[in-house]
Design goal:
Layout: H1 3-10, H2 12-23, E1 27-31, H3 33-40, E2 47-52, H4 57-63, E3 71-73, E4 79-84, E5 87-92, E6 95-99, E7 107-111, H5 117-121, E8 132-134, E9 140-141, H6 146-151, E10 154-155, H7 167-179, E11 182-183, H8 185-192, H9 201-214, H10 219-222, H11 235-242, H12 244-260, H13 267-275, H14 286-295, H15 299-315, H16 325-332, H17 337-347, H18 352-365, H19 378-383, H20 390-404, H21 411-428
Parallel strand pairs: 2-5, 10-11
Antiparallel strand pairs: 1-2, 1-8, 3-4, 4-5, 6-7, 8-9
């Protein structure tokens, strides 16, 4: 069923509005991913509609009023979004984009109702994304032979404007991985000439998230980082890539992690699986830390991934290590052991015995998802007569450490020791 027929079935109000616009000499054309995915036989709930022969964004908004409340997203690009439980639709006008400054967003936009479909599609990245579907006739518009490229499983850029947006290099990576496509040699050469310095971390992370969450075999994308010139610009990954065996282990671990996680996979677990072998080259995690800083603004996210990697490394030196209960309890204070289990399953897929043991033992100890609750609190210590003060924190830290090591196993034992320590010292004085 074509995107036109899907809209008529799922979103009759949108269909009615588009019919009205067409009756007023507007020309609605479905564009982008919805058309591409339909040709490929892939489901797509979100649709982009470019409406030709309309003179302004304000006029477009007026015509869309029957849909009710709309979001204006990508304000510079004049995109009006309609949301529904059955899917969303983005409406926009044909436009030209001119590079005016560095970076992914350094464009001036000119809306032009006189543009034909081919002229408007020149701003798009790849031929497979430059295919249109006429709303009224259900006819495919394919000025750059995108359908042929889809059939050939080939990613090919539309034109020289491709180089104006450096994010498109990473889009080539994630599309190739998601669809199992190759990158056209001319497009590969063009990607290698594009500088990525101006890309903000959030946009880089967005592309890696799509790569890791939507591809059944993310390794296909990771192997493109070198031929597309990305590694040449990111020295921390270039250093990691230089150790062929460790890089291969990380790439294989990503595919293993993808196979064991559900759709909407955790980006943190996927990154940890990919970067973990770099710890063998760099015990201080400088490679992983530098790359995560490049793609993540959130320090909390970065620290969480690094803590998972470090705790796993301390817990299991290799796939023959059997961690002690003390090590498991200590690791649980740094990261979730459930995540450690998932990471080890990706890294050592042939050693299920180790993974099953850690999962079972952590479950028995009650620490699979959280660290042990402290046996004693400050309130407990004060209840036996120990006064408030900084010493309470020191005592609690000592007792928790003893609890993790298994030296103290009950509150009553901890309080007896605390009483003897505190009041024994007081009497000596």
């Amino acid at each position: 069923m074509s995107p036109c027929h899907q809209l008529r079935t799922r979103l009759p109000l949108v269909s009615s509005v588009l019919d009205t616009i067409a009756g007023l000499e507007g020309i609605p054309i479905i564009v982008g991913g919805a058309v591409r995915d339909w040709i490929m036989g892939v489901a797509c709930d979100d649709v982009d509609v470019e409406i030709f022969n309309i003179d302004s964004v304000e006029h477009l908004q007026f015509l869309l009023k029957p849909l009710g409340r709309l979001e204006l997203v990508g304000r510079v690009f004049g995109v009006c979004r309609y949301r529904s439980p059955d899917g969303s639709v983005d409406f926009t006008l044909p436009r030209r984009e001119h590079k005016i400054s560095e970076g992914h967003t350094g464009f001036a936009v000119d809306f032009d109702p006189s543009l034909n479909f081919r002229e408007a599609a020149l701003r798009r990245d790849f031929t497979m994304n430059a295919i249109g579907l006429d709303w009224l006739t259900n006819k495919i518009l394919d000025p750059f032979q995108g359908v042929d490229d889809i059939k050939a499983k080939r990613i090919r850029h539309v034109g020289p404007q491709f180089a104006e947006d450096p994010l498109r290099v990473l889009r080539a990576v994630q599309f190739a991985s998601r669809f199992g496509f190759s990158v056209d040699p001319e497009t590969t050469a063009l990607c290698r000439s594009i500088r990525l310095d101006s890309l903000p971390a959030a946009r880089i992370l967005d592309e890696f998230t799509k790569l890791f969450s939507r591809s059944s075999k993310p390794s296909m994308g990771l192997t493109l980082l070198e031929p597309l010139g990305v590694l040449a610009q990111w020295p921390e990954l270039r250093h990691y890539h230089g150790d062929v065996s460790r890089w291969a282990q990380g790439v294989a671990a990503v595919d293993q992690m993808a196979s064991q996680l559900k759709p909407g996979r955790s980006i943190g677990l996927m990154l940890a699986a990919w970067l973990y072998p770099s710890l063998y080259l760099d015990s201080k995690s400088q490679v992983a830390s530098a790359f995560l800083s490049r793609i993540m603004d959130s320090k909390r996210q970065r620290v969480g991934i690094l803590n998972l990697m470090a705790a796993t490394r301390r817990l299991v030196k290799d796939d023959r290590t059997v961690p002690t209960d003390t090590q498991l309890r200590e690791a649980s204070t740094q990261t979730q052991l459930r995540h450690v289990v998932a990471l080890l399953a990706a890294l050592y897929p042939t050693n299920r015995q180790l993974v099953r043991y850690i999962h079972a033992r952590a479950t028995e100890l009650g620490i699979l998802d959280r660290p042990p609750e402290p046996l004693v609190t400050g309130k407990d210590l004060m209840s036996i007569g120990i006064p408030e003060g900084a010493h309470l924190g020191e005592l609690l830290a000592d007792f928790y450490s003893a609890q993790l090591s298994g030296k103290i196993t009950s509150k009553s034992a901890a309080l007896r020791i605390a009483y003897d320590l505190w009041f024994g010292e007081s009497e000596d004085e």
